[in-house]
Amino acid sequence: MKIRTKFLGIIYIIILIFGLSILGIYFYLHTHTSKSINNILSCNNELEILSQLELALIKTVMPANDYLIHGNKEEKYTFEELDANVNNYFSMLEGKTFPTFITMEGREIFEKLKGQYVQIKTFSAIIFNLPNPIGNTEGAHIMEKLDLLMDNMLDDMKKLHDRSRRDVLIEVEAINDHFYRYMIIVLSAFGVITVVLILYGLFLVQGIISHIERLAEHMKFVAKGGSGKKLDIKSNDEIGYLANSFNGMAFRLEESRRQLQD
């Protein structure tokens, strides 16, 4: 095997292994990053729906309050439209696998919100059934309960918001951790490969130099008239070929010297 083949062969093998390692790390990192990005998008989607639900819930108590102030029966139909929106947002949240529903606490808060909204609908129905709403004492007490209930619901909504925001931050940190972790792996692998190449190159060069030094010493020995000593270099590269050629030349030179002596 030629020296160039030895040196370039190991370089090609190491580059191939390094390239395959980088490719494998890339796909692994891409898979985890894609999963984290999907989770972030899911959290953002949930946050958007929760914000719309929160706004819709706040609006649902307004028709009952306006009915107690102005006595306009049309407020009941306004409440029915708002109720349809709230139910739609509840259905959207239930129909998707959002991060909120992964934990037991998130599901419990969501079910609590639905139960509280049932109470809001019940209280609103009582208010809309009052014959004389303006200045009605019973309606005012029910409205106070509605306001208190809405404050509790907003607190629970805030918990769901905070949970989704925290999940977003967790996923972002996971992406950063994966990136820096595999950057360290790549740099470490590159450093190891560099050290291996340097050591292999030094080993190869040292072997070539030692063989050349032995060849030079043997040439001096033959030049001084030495004979009968064969240069023993076991190598199948150019150095080995040169040593065999020199042994052949020294043998022919010795044969010629003997013939001259005879």
Describe it:
α1 packs antiparallel against α4, α2 (75-94) runs antiparallel to α3 (104-128) and α3 (104-128) runs antiparallel to α4 (137-223). Helix content is 85%, strand content 0%. With 262 residues, it is mainly alpha-helical.
How would you briefly describe this protein structure?
With 262 residues, the chain is an all-alpha fold. The protein is 85% helix and 0% strand.
Class per helix and strand makeup: mainly alpha
**Stretches where pLDDT falls below 50 for ≥5 residues?**
none
User: Given the structure, what is the number of helices?
Assistant: 5
Main beta sheet, described?
A: none
Mean pLDDT: 79
Rg for CA atoms: 43 Å
Element-level helix/strand string: HHHHH
What overall form do the CA principal axes indicate?
rod-shaped
Describe the SSE topology.
Elements: H1 3-70, H2 75-94, H3 104-128, H4 137-223, H5 238-261
Descriptors for this entry?
262 residues, mainly alpha, 5 helices, 85% helix
